[in-house]
What does this fold into?
Amino acid sequence: MATGRRLALLGVLIMTAGGCAKPADTVLVGGKVWTGTGTTASAVAVRDGRIVGVGDDASISRMAGSRTERVALAGRLVVPGLMDNHTHFIAGGFELAGVQLRDAARPQEFVRRIAEFVRLHPDVWVQGGTWDHELWGGELPRRDWIDSVTGETPVFVSRLDGHMGLANSRALALAGITAETRDPPGGTIVRDAAGRPTGILKDEAQGLVFAAMPDPTEAELDRALDAAARYAVERGVTHVTDMGSWAGLETYRRAEAAGRLPLRVYAAVPIATWPRLAEYIARHGRGDPRLAWGAAKGFVDGSLGSTTAWFYRPYDDAPTTTGLTVTDTAELRAQILSADSAGLQVVVHAIGDRANDWLLGVYAEARERNHNANQRFRIEHAQHLTPDAIRRIGQEGVIPSMQPYHAIDDGRWAVRRIGPERLKGTYAFRSLLDAGARLTFGSDWTVAPLDPLYGIYAAVTRRTLDGANPDGWMPEQKITVEEALTAYTRSNAYADNLEDVLGTIEVGKYADLVVLAKDILTIDPIQIERVPVDLTMVGGAVVYRRRT
It folds into this structure.
């Protein structure tokens, strides 16, 4: 059917579905609408927070009244609200106010920025950072780098992946960490040749410092959420899945009750607390499409960058280790089986190939044991997969919850960690789609930038941040722009049990819409990361409009 006839027919259909007795609140006309359903349109109508029309300009214009807001798209692209499948959202709000070390490319710059931050904030715990030691050749920072510039101000700054951090001597003292302190289960205290802590704490060892920090107040949590939400909608993010905490869930509930939640949130809590979550749902339900809960988040292993992801074979550049399990596997297995039996959604972090295989085995056991009809098991990251794991994810309906920006970041140095053979199953977007998997995308913010357009750029080009792979790192795993958009919209809605109301531009669904300044479906993919978001709409309300 010709495009014009398709639009005309769709216009007739939407007028019947949407009705014309009451004018639309907003119409967006004169552009290109990527609906996520395979249909073609140029305009959208919104009323009472829902989409009431999708079709051609003439049909949608007839739905407008004298008080209808008209958005002239002038050829711009409209896509469904962009959904992020994995964030540390409130932590991101705090991060925006912390010391910024992500692009510190030399140890001297790393130290200088911490010194300046301490000078301006001498009476608070210094946190944030998201440093990357690979930028200066891979040497881990040490407390003696920063002790002389931090004095009595406690400092604990995290690596960008969140799986290790650097504490100064003051922070170690407050945490009670000495040469005699044993490594906690699932964590490592890095030590020098004499056995003294260097200040680097990996995975669960970080908890020793976290326990010494004062808890944030409700007011501080509220401010962090407000900052994160503003930051998100400016980037076209209308929904986030937050791998958070009980304090975070209550922060979201306060914001929603006060009308201060401009985007949608699906809040996960630690899987170790699954009985509390089951009881919470029994008392409060599962929320609503603005704020929902019901996911229990667990960890199998650590990260590639921290050499704590769990592999079958040792790391090439750290041959004494195969990584670690952050949670005792017997304990985690019991938590997964129990949480699933209670009807909770189980979402578990797994990065190394052994971690992913182990998790798939437990998920299969849960399916066999619990017969949960609505299982939507998720693997958070699904980063390094064996060919059999890729096949199983597709066949068994497990959702790979992945973050494409990690590919162009890790691709600078990953070969040093595990070599070219194991890399064949790394960030295997194309292989997973070909295996029938429902691929979903997000950021892992603050580990990586929140911007979905950066993620789409990464998935489509796979050009590493160092410029060393202009044709793409492991280019056979590239996907198309439409496939990446689907992973950020329709598939994410399914992963969070919201596909009936979100994820596509269809009549009856919530009017979560994003207007992009350029058509990312037709421009050179290399330009995608620089395309501005012009407008973000959540439930029919404009929550961000770019000033031009």
In short: Confidence is low (pLDDT under 50) at residues 1-20. The domain at 90-210 is CATH 3.10.310.70 (Diaminopimelate Epimerase; Chain A, domain 1). The radius of gyration is 24 Å. The chain is about 35% helix and 20% strand.
